[in-house]
Amino acid sequence: MDLGIAGRRALVCAASKGLGKASALALAREGVHLTITARGVDSLEATAEEIRKETGVSVTAVAGDITTEEGRAAALAACPDPDILVNNAGGPPPGNFRDWDRDDWIKALDANMLTAVFLIKATVDGMIGRKFGRIVNITSAQVKAATIGTLGLSTGARAGLTGFSAVVARQVAKHNVTINGLLPGPFDTDRLRATMTGASKASGRSVEDVMADRRAENPTGRFGDPAEFGAMCAFLCSTQAGYITGQNILLDGGAFPAVV
């Protein structure tokens, strides 16, 4: 299927690895020109060069912390008028809510709610003016079902973004601008491995055993492939997806046992 977005411009956050990288690569394969951000210069430049070589699209790498005003300003200077915005940021560390103070909460809100809010604010009116815009927020399956009790910081902040996006999505839909959330379950990424390492330390079991149990819990018997996630992100950014907005799409291998 031709997604109809060749030649469009996308800003993809936290795109040097994991689900952000998979999303950027999927968009590039559709002919979308990219601006990608991440904090690590070397990994970001390596990803940019990898995507250029495979797809031939232009890729601008902007190293910096997208969760800061300076990081967002640098990204928007490089890509002031994106047609596509993929919001993504690493989550805060797991832990016990009794140990978190106000600074921990503010940091989580800055990273996993307010950064996306400010990027939407900075770009959505341009999308409205051009009569095309696709915004995808990468959040978490925890927004749908809080099954991991140690991820309260991440879940709380991402739930706030989910509520905000639901409101704004209905305001901009008539301009062919959509806002949707992608809620990943267990995908084979560095983030998942870090979570599993934490669970390993807490339980006294090996990381391999913890991961094997987690795979077995999933109806598919495996973790998700980031490429599967990237493909869904690209579709939500397509011309064909203009009637999908204000939705939160769960990619979890069927782990959430809902009937509807």
List keywords for this structure.
SDR_fam; 7-stranded parallel sheet; 14% strand; SDR; NAD(P)-bd_dom_sf; 47% helix
Would you give an account of this structure?
By secondary structure, this protein is α/β, with parallel strands linked by helices. It has a seven-stranded parallel beta sheet, sandwiched between helices. The protein has eight helices and seven strands, in the order E-H-E-H-E-H-E-H-E-H-E-H-H-H-E. Strand 4 (84-87), helix 4 (102-130) and strand 5 form a beta-alpha-beta unit. Helix 6 crosses helix 7 (207-217). It has helices spanning 18-29, 41-55, 69-78, 102-130, 152-172, 190-203, 207-217, 226-236, and strands at residues 9-12, 33-38, 59-63, 84-87, 133-138, 177-184, 248-251. It is 47% helix and 14% strand. InterPro entries: NAD(P)-bd_dom_sf, SDR, SDR_fam. Pfam families: adh_short_C2 (PF13561).
Short description:
Helices cover 47% and strands 14% of the residues. It has helices spanning 18-29, 41-55, 69-78, 102-130, 152-172, 190-203, 207-217, 226-236; strands spanning 9-12, 33-38, 59-63, 84-87, 133-138, 177-184, 248-251.
